[in-house]
Design goal:
The structure is a single chain. The chain is 22% helix and 31% strand. It has 4 helices and 13 strands. A hairpin with a 4-residue loop joins strand 9 (207-211) and strand 10 (216-224). Helix 2 (80-95) packs across helix 3 and helix 2 crosses helix 4. It is globular, with a radius of gyration of 18 Å. Its EC number is 6.3.4.15. It catalyses: biotin + L-lysyl-[protein] + ATP = N(6)-biotinyl-L-lysyl-[protein] + AMP + diphosphate + H(+). It is an enzyme of class 6 (ligase).
Amino acid sequence: MPRRISLDDFRHEALDEVSSTNTEAFARARAGDSGFLWLTAERQTGGRGRRGRPWVSERGNLYSTLLLIDAAPPEQLGSLPLAVALAVHAAVQTVMPPGGEPVEIKWPNDVLIGRKKTSGILLEAERITDGRMALAIGIGINIAHRPDLTLYPVTSLADQGVSISPPEFFAHLFAEMAEVLSVWDEGRGIAEIVRRWRCVACGIGEKITVNLPDRSISGIFSGIDDKGILLLDRGSDGMMSVAAGDVFFG
């Protein structure tokens, strides 16, 4: 039977200003923290996104990290980004006004409102000296502000008519993450996570371009396989599996 994770399993520490909540989480792990620790900050001075991109960190948005220790066997961690995206998606969906634009997930874990990015999720891992694996799940939500110069169209909750404070939004995220991590069950619940993810996926059946470190490839987004790997239909070149990359529509 899966271990039911309850809200009482988690601790939360609210900070004012940090370099980044992920950096702070790793510092706590090195100091012996046992995990299930949420850190939130009013502002980050060194926030970062995927591939080291800077993350705009003005006051009024949510900057948070969940620290997990030995979250799952390494071979099971590949599905965790999908689970995290589902928790963020559920939290955003909860606060959206009736009749608002659709809330979807762009593979693997970008939460979109009306096809505009509203969150950043960065998972980082570090093997600490006592042999434990520390995992920092960084989650930033555009609540009051959004960056101006980005690779993708972006939006904020305020742009969508949502009036909410970062602590109020975090309360939703806190609850949704506990539920999703229970379902994920250290990777054993991947089938249900994949099923839920497919229900809120953005762009299945559409043409996409995937930017890889060394090249860009295009095709029809055919969804994800049972492990969460992107399936790209390249016509006469056949079906291609993509484990990591940046997706662009059209």
